Every structure is written in C-alpha cells, then in structure tokens.
Amino acid sequence: MSAQGGAVTVFAPAGELTMVSAPAVLEDGRRLARAGDLVVDFAGVTVADSAALALLLDWMRCARAAGNRLAVRSLPAGMASLAALYDIDALLPLEPAQ
Fold this sequence. Notes:
Largest sheet: 3 strands, parallel
Number of strands: 5
Distance between the termini: 12 Å
Strand order of the largest sheet: 1-3-5
CATH topology: Transcription Regulator spoIIAA
CATH superfamily: STAS domain
Radius of gyration: 13 Å
Number of helices: 3
Number of domains: 1
Structural class: alpha/beta
CATH architecture: 2-Layer Sandwich
Order of helices and strands: EEHEEHEH
C-alpha cells in the first residue's frame, strides 16, 4: 500500500492476541483505522486465536467506514488457517510479498 497525500501508519500488536488480550488493543486499532491508511503488522504476535481474526475484521470495517485503506502484513499461519476455515481468507487485504 502506498500513501497518496499522507503517511501510512503501521500498527504492530505484539505478544498474545487472544480472547483474553484482544480487548486491550481493540480501541487502539479502531482509532488508527479511522485516522488514516493503516498497515497491521502481525510479525510480533506470538499466539493468535479467533479473537485476533475478529479484531482484524473490526479494524477493516472501521477503516472502510472512514474511507481509509487497511493492509495486513505478516499474518500468522494460525490466523490464515482460521480465515480459510471460515471462508473469509479472500476478504483479507494481505500486503503483497516483497
């Protein structure tokens, strides 16, 4: 994703992103998704469950509602598997491999 007329923010949650920890980052992601174009970088996420996927979908909705773009970087294999299982993997705006 390249920014046109503005910088792209990178949001990099780290550690576990599970039902227990997801509420702590929900509003941060929403705020950033509403503020401008956003890349969510999951490289620092060590454990992810369906709550992480729900967060991502929420942030995507927030970005779209605000007229912003969101891309996903370094999606953990477990999240990719869950997305495929739920048949929503095609909806995820994955950043092209570089």
